[in-house]
UniProtKB/TrEMBL annotation:
InterPro entries: F-box-like_dom_sf, F-box_dom, SirB1_N. Residues 294-340 are annotated as: Disordered. PROSITE patterns: FBOX. This is F-box domain-containing protein. Residues 3-49 form the F-box domain. Coiled coil: none annotated. It comes from the Eukaryota. It comes from Hortaea werneckii (Black yeast). Pfam families: F-box-like, Transglut_core2.
Length: 352
């Protein structure tokens, strides 16, 4: 029988205590008695520590997907321990590369090969090294250099996947350019992904009935929100060719939120996809638009299609009717772009 004073406390109180403990204290608390050990080893406890301690994760962890599963289906404590071991090994290598130039670049490469699993550690070195530390400049320089290497490797990986015609999202392909100008600041692919999730959730919260709207109305609501928040478009077209407008992370995170039409459409399509709208970019001559497709079961206006409605064959040269696709130009407007306007412009350009 447990002789610890904790044995007399109700489980609810023990759980409340653990909620306020950092990881090291949680491990120590688990040693107090069998009851605290059982509670401290609960998956949800270590899920919380993973979320609180680490912002960045290598893609192979499928961290975002793990968060959607019941806590018991993921070995959270083992996952946390794995990250701690990686931090410890990377920290030893980092201290070693500061001491001597011999094998310095080899050590930097070994750290960079851990990818995003060491990004939190490196950012901690950049931001957490005291100004009065004798090697503050060396620590920040080499930590930023390794971060840059990680970002560039990630960017090249996305472009290689695109070249091989593997699945890669437009915002990832465009965001990969941003990784070449990032150091430690906010705006890498995982930050962009989280920001799109946040924007999509804000749209849902603003309109509780959003999911019941027709696709056409959803498409308009998304564009309206993005333009109201100045997340797409460019109010000052004199700065149209400014270099910053090419970077999707700057459009999302930095004032003013200006971008080129391609980046605006990429933002629109990424948010729309998270809200169940099938939107993709269309390289209309001289200006990128977003094309929104109706689902196979309903028209754009929400009218159910007959069960016998045949899918469009891939070799069908006839243009789809206006119940199947629509066009949006979020860079210029929150309203639908009429097909007649697009056809007129094509005729004016001499395109059949």
């Amino acid at each position: 029988m447990d002789a610890s004073p904790f044995a007399k406390l109700p489980d609810e109180l023990l759980e409340a205590i653990i909620l306020h403990l950092p990881p090291a204290s949680t491990t120590a608390f688990a040693l107090a008695c069998r009851r605290t050990s059982k509670i401290a080893h609960e998956p949800r406890v270590w899920r919380r520590h993973c979320l609180a301690e680490y912002r960045y994760w290598q893609p192979h962890h499928d961290f975002k997907e793990k968060l959607t599963l019941p806590p018991a289906q993921t070995p959270w404590r083992q996952l946390f321990a794995e990250r701690r071991r990686t931090d410890a090994e990377a920290a030893v290598l980092f201290e070693a590369l500061l001491l001597t130039q011999q094998e310095r670049y080899a050590r930097m490469e070994r750290i960079a090969n851990w990818g995003y699993d060491v990004k939190d550690l490196l950012l901690g070195i950049v931001d957490g090294t005291p100004e009065d530390a004798e090697d503050v400049l060396a620590r920040r320089y080499h930590a930023n250099a390794i971060l840059g290497s990680i970002h560039r490797m990630t960017a090249v990986e996305k472009w290689v996947r695109l070249q091989r015609q593997q699945m890669v999202r437009l915002e990832e392909v465009l965001g990969a350019y941003d990784l070449f100008v990032l150091a430690g600041r906010r705006g890498d692919l995982s930050d962009i992904d989280r920001e799109f999730d946040r924007i999509a959730e804000n749209i849902r919260q603003r309109d509780p009935d959003f999911d019941q709207l027709s696709v056409r109305r959803k498409a308009g609501q998304i564009a309206k929100y993005l333009r109201s928040e100045n997340l797409v478009g460019n109010p000052n077209e004199e700065n149209y060719h400014a270099l910053r407008n090419n970077f999707i992370s700057m459009a999302l995170f930095e004032e003013p939120h200006t971008s080129l039409p391609l980046q605006s459409v990429a933002i629109y399509c990424a948010v729309a996809r998270r809200l169940g709208v099938n939107a993709r970019p269309s390289n209309y001559p001289h200006h990128v638009h977003a094309v929104i497709e109706a689902p196979s079961t309903h028209t754009l206006d929400g009218t159910p299609r007959p069960i016998t409605h045949p899918p469009r064959p891939d070799n069908d040269d006839q243009p789809p009717d206006e119940t199947e696709i629509m066009h949006m130009d979020p860079w210029r407007s929150s309203t639908e772009t009429p097909r007649s306007d697009l056809l007129t412009r094509l005729i004016q350009m001499g395109i059949p």
